[in-house]
Amino acid sequence: MSLIYLATFLFSLTMGALIMPRIVSISQKKNLMDAPDDRKVHPIPVPRLGGISFLPLTMMSIFLFNILCMTLLGAEVKAGDTSTFLRIQCCGMGAMLLFLVGVADDLVGVDYRVKFLAQTAAAALFPLSGLTFGSLFTAVGWIHVPFWISAPFTVFLVVYITNAINLIDGLDGLASGICIIAFALYTAIFLYLRHPFLASTCLSVLGVLIVFFIYNIFGGEGSRIQKVFMGDTGSLTLGYFISFLALYLTRFSGEKVFVFTGSMYAAFAPLVIPLLDVVRVVFLRWRAGAPLFRPDRRHIHHRLLAAGLTPHQATALLLLLTLGFVALNLTLSKFLRSSWVVLANLVIWALMIYCIERKAQRAQRVQEV
Fold first, then answer.
1. Number of folded domains that form the chain
2. Which of helix, strand or coil describes residue 293?
3. How far apart are CA 244 and CA 240, in angstroms?
4. Helix H segments across the chain?
5. Cα–Cα distance between 356 and 348 in angstroms, integer?
6. Which one of 7, 147, 300, 310 has the largest count of C-beta atoms within 10 Å of its C-beta?
7. pLDDT at residue 111 tops 60
């Protein structure tokens, strides 16, 4: 079984390495470039269709895993995995819808209302397949809720996570780095829980995502490889897959000592920064009377740049903080009640934002002088 997992990952990695240079070349020839502006940090046009490789290569790798399992293992694949397999097909359908919307947005632009409608339709596939976030957080911890509450909340949560990944994609390596941390964590847990189809889904995304990360953060002037962006095609696909895997992970809160109630925190720990940043930015826009969905420079990565960090320094810091939140949540969940773990996250986030804003304001005053 380990060799099948390895083959799946290496196939995704290898195909990504073969296809990414072709995507860059086509983007340059057809002038499918992301042009710089006042909100963006890159000084020259950059190919923006790197994310177009995510879904096809992920699905090819998943299919390869399925073929190898059925051919080589046969009866060893648990019958109980059938429902998981079917839900992965639903995830593939929703991801294809968002993939098409993302391609259209990267090529010609799509109104935000159309994107929200597509995200809602894709998210609705999860409760229709029986996959819902069946718990809500209260002051006394997580409580189980009926389907008529969990279904719409699941749709909201999927749209929320998908947009959070899309909006955090503002610096080289930031969104892809956070997603790599998330998929690597999910891979380890699903392997431990012996859920082969879910683990293979994580590995399938992880392979091509690592290739993109290398091109995105190390490519450019002075490098042998060309920088490339994932665009909405990539960020919507990644956000949707992460929401699917996070929802599934919350279903295993009672299985095995390693995760127990901590699976709830393992699911969302890598997403703390993008999820809370969305809330902060929307609140700031609402308070300022600005359009809620118009891009601006209020995101946490923009504030780090205003504080004087370089783009790579800001990315490295946010990825280290993401790893810190993962370690914190997995550790605290073993010793504290749910409400205290959530409170710890919020306090650390608030202190982090306070320090960043103070430093950004000092840097602005120095520039004005």
1. 1
2. coil
3. 6
4. 2-29, 54-68, 81-107, 112-128, 147-168, 174-192, 196-218, 231-249, 256-259, 262-268, 272-288, 300-306, 311-332, 338-368
5. 12
6. 300
7. yes
Residue 364 lies in a domain: no
> Which amino acid belongs to residue 200?
S
Token pair 């189809």 is found at: 197
Q: Which residues contact 365 (CB under 8 A, 6 or more apart)?
A: none
The reply to whether 326 falls in a domain is no
33 DSSP β-pair partners = 47
Task: Answer whether 82's CB lies under 8 Å from 196's CB.
Answer: no
| Secondary structure class of 34 (helix, strand, coil) | strand
- Work out the end-to-end distance of the chain between its first and last CA atoms, rounded to an integer number of angstroms: 64
The angle subtended at Cα 9 by Cα 6 and Cα 15, nearest 5°, is 130
Alpha-carbon 49 to chain mean position? 17
Cα maximum dimension of the chain: 73
> What residue type is 137 in one-letter code?
F
- CA atoms within 13 Å, Cβ hemisphere of 242: 37
State pLDDT tens for residues 131-163. Answer: 888 665 544 455 677 788 888 999 999 999 999
- Its domain, for residue 76, covers 2-272
pTM: 0.91
- The answer to whether the CB of 241 falls within 8 A of the CB of 106 is no
Would you say residue 357 lies in a domain? no
